[in-house]
Write a structure and sequence with these properties.
mainly alpha, globular, 4 helices
């Protein structure tokens, strides 16, 4: 998944209701943190990529979002 798509997920309001609970919790937290401090977006993208790398289900969840 490319940075453009992940950025859209973190800065938008994409519905994640069909994603796993773990993915929804992480993305929700990252969205809140990015809204509070937009300058931290690169750091939060790295955190999301790391989560996806460790948890294949998250990549599937987000690809289907």
């Amino acid at each position: 998944m490319d940075d453009k798509r992940l950025t859209a997920l973190l800065t938008g309001t994409t519905d994640l209701s069909k994603a796993s609970l773990a993915t929804r919790i992480l993305v929700s937290r990252l969205r809140i943190e990015v809204r509070a401090k937009p300058e931290n977006l690169p750091e939060k993208l790295t955190e999301l990529k790391s989560f996806i790398a460790k948890n294949a289900f998250a990549g599937i969840d987000l690809a289907n979002a």
